[in-house]
Amino acid sequence: MTHELPVAKAHAYGNDFLFVPLDRTRGDLPSLARALCDRHTGIGADGLILYSLRDRGATMKLLNADGSVSELSGNGVRCLAALAARTQGLRAGETMIVDTDAGTLALALLSEDGGRHTFRTAIGQPADIEQVQIPVHGEVITATTLRMGNPQCIVLGPLPDAERFGRLGPALSTHPRFPAGTNVEFVQVESPHLVRILIWERGVGPTTSSGTGSSASAVAAAAHGGASRSVEVVAPGGIQSVDWTDDGVFLTGWAEVVMEGHWVRDANIP
User: Fold this and answer.
1) What pTM did the predictor assign?
2) N or C: which end of the chain has fewer CB within 10 A?
C-alpha cells in the first residue's frame, strides 16, 4: 500500500532542502528524513524541513540528511521563505518572519529574478566566541568556536587539500569537545573584504554552501583573521554577503524552488 506525501525542493547555492508540511508528517521523523534525503533511493537533499505557513510568516523544524535534528540553517530558512514567497506573493521590500528552534528570524525580500529570491536575513548575534586549541589526528588545531544559532568550529588559514579536508572535517565535527557535534568551516582570508571557505556540515558532510557557516566564518575572520565586518564569503556553490553590525549578523543571498510534487512511498516507511 502506498500514499502520497507532498514535497517541495529548493536550494541556495547547491545547498538543498526538502520541504514537507508539518501537518502531513507522522511516525519516525528521523527515518523519514533519511529516506527522503537519500540521493539514490529517495529524492535527495542535505536536509528535511517540516514547516507550516501563515501570512508573511512560517514555522520550521530542520532534520539533517542523517536524521539528526539541527537548530537552524541560514540557507534552509531562506529556501523556506522563497517557497512561501511563491504562494503568498511576497514583494520586494516586504519581510518574512520565520520561527526556528534557534529563535525568530526576519528575512527582507530584496528582489526576485527568474525564480531566484534574494533575501537579507537577520541571523542574530554570534555567541560564545572563543579561540581554542583542539588536538586531532596527532596535531593541535587552532580554531574559533562560536554559536550562530547552531554550533560552529572555524579553522582560519590556507584551505586544506581534499585529503586533509576529508580527514579533519569529520574528525572536528564529531570531536569530544562538541558533545552535540558541530559544523566545521575552513576559512582563508584573501583580503579584508573577501574570505573563501570549505564546509563540513554536521549530520551531512561536505556541502556547497552554508548560511550559518558563512556567517560564522565572517565573524571568526573579523575577530581573529584581520577581516572587515562586511565581507563576501566565497563557498564552492557561490558568494554570499555577510555584515556583522551592532545589531547582529545579516546574511544576503538567494534561494530558488526547483520542484513541487509528491513522493509516492510504501506505507511501511514512517
Assistant:
1) 0.94
2) N
SS3 readout for 224-250:
HCCCCCEEEEEECCEEEEEEEECCEEE
Q: Answer yes or no: are the C-beta atoms of 262 and 5 closer than 8 Å.
A: yes
Which are the contacts of 211, defined by CB distance < 8 A and separation ≥ 6? 12, 15, 73, 74, 75, 76, 77, 78, 121, 123, 240, 251, 253
pLDDT-derived band of residue 265, with 50, 70 and 90 as boundaries? Answer: confident
Using alpha carbons, list the distances in angstroms from residue 265 to 4, 46, 207.
Answer: 7, 20, 27
**How far apart are the C-alpha atoms of 261 and 122, rounded to whole Å?**
30
CB-facing half-sphere around the CA of 137: CA atoms within 13 A: 11
Instruction: Say how far apart CA 72 and CA 64 lie, in whole Å.
Output: 10
Three-state SS sequence of the chain: CEEEEEEEEEEECCEEEEEEEHHHCCCCHHHHHHHHHCCCCCCCCCEEEEEEEECCEEEEEEEECCCCEECCCHHHHHHHHHHHHHHHCCCCCCEEEEEECCEEEEEEEEEEECCEEEEEEEEECCEEEEEEEEEECCEEEEEEEEECCCEEEEEECCCCCHHHHHHHHHHHHCCCCCCCCCEEEEEEEEECCEEEEEEEECCCEEECCCHHHHHHHHHHHHHHCCCCCEEEEEECCEEEEEEEECCEEEEEEEEEEEEEEEEEEECCCC
pLDDT confidence of residue 230: 98
Spatial distance between the Cα atoms of 54 and 56, rounded to a whole number of angstroms: 6
Amino acid 3: pLDDT: 72
